[in-house]
Amino acid sequence: MLSPSSDPSAEAGNAAGAMTAATVATRRCLVSGEERPKSELVRFVVGPDGTVVPDIDGRLPGRGLWTLARRDIVAAAVVKKLFARAAREPASADPGLVDRVERLLVRRCVATLGLARRAGQAVGGFEKVRALIERGACGVMVIAAEASGEGRRKAVSGVEALPVVGTLTEAELGGVFGRESVTYAAVARGGNAQRCLEDGSRLGGFRAAA
């Protein structure tokens, strides 16, 4: 999730901040009817067998069916059979679709962090995170859902304006850095930080706020 004082356009990518409403690609949620940036939505397609398939990366062929990245919204689309209505063809959405989307979003979040780590742009551990912040190079903080309130306060002390992703678990973060668990991580400013922020925000719609 994002901290209330987050400013992603200022802290997690100058390119994103420079975009205007006219240049941001948007799509309409088939449940709420809201038109939102694609980064806030989840894309689905109807597979050859008529099954609704989540397309987290937005690369699968076929007509895109979009929903807000929220558990209740996707669940409503399944229960009310809105995928078939929007696709104008038979489309079967399994009741487990919501949980599948969550798992795929976790995988994408972990993959994005792993890419940043291999590029030398992500660090794990409280001291390394603070060092990155003190150098003025931090684009986004990643704090595990299990982190204590006191630990969170220490981590963001003096840097409340930085965006925070708080939807991954300690074990999920640990897998990125080759450890059993990691509570605090950070990504340097740039494209990976922006992707981490967007991915984490989408995942937040499927997990209770930490």
What can you see in these coordinates?
The chain has helices spanning 8-11, 14-18, 71-79, 82-87, 97-118, 126-134, 149-155, 170-176, 191-204, and strands at residues 26-28, 35-37, 41-46, 52-54, 65-68, 122-124, 138-143, 164-165, 184-188. Helix 3 (71-79) packs antiparallel against helix 5, helix 5 (97-118) crosses helix 8 and helix 5 (97-118) packs antiparallel against helix 9. It contains 9 helices and 9 strands. With 210 residues, the protein is an alpha+beta fold. It has 2 domains: 8-17 and 103-204, Ribosomal protein L30/S12 (60s Ribosomal Protein L30, Chain: A); 21-100, YlxR-like (Hypothetical Cytosolic Protein, Chain: A, 2-Layer Sandwich).
Based on the structure given, which CATH architecture of the largest domain is correct? 2-Layer Sandwich
Q: What summary fits the major beta sheet? A: 4 strands, mixed
Shape from CA axes?
Answer: elongated
**Which CATH first-tier class of the largest domain would you pick?**
Alpha Beta
Give unreliable regions as ranges: 1-22
Domain count: the total is: 2
User: Going across the major beta sheet, what is the strand order?
Assistant: 6-9-7-8
What string, H for helix and E for strand, traces the elements in order?
HHEEEEEHHHEHEHEHEH
CATH superfamily of the largest domain: Ribosomal protein L30/S12
Q: Kindly state the mean pLDDT as a whole number?
A: 88
Individual helix count:
9
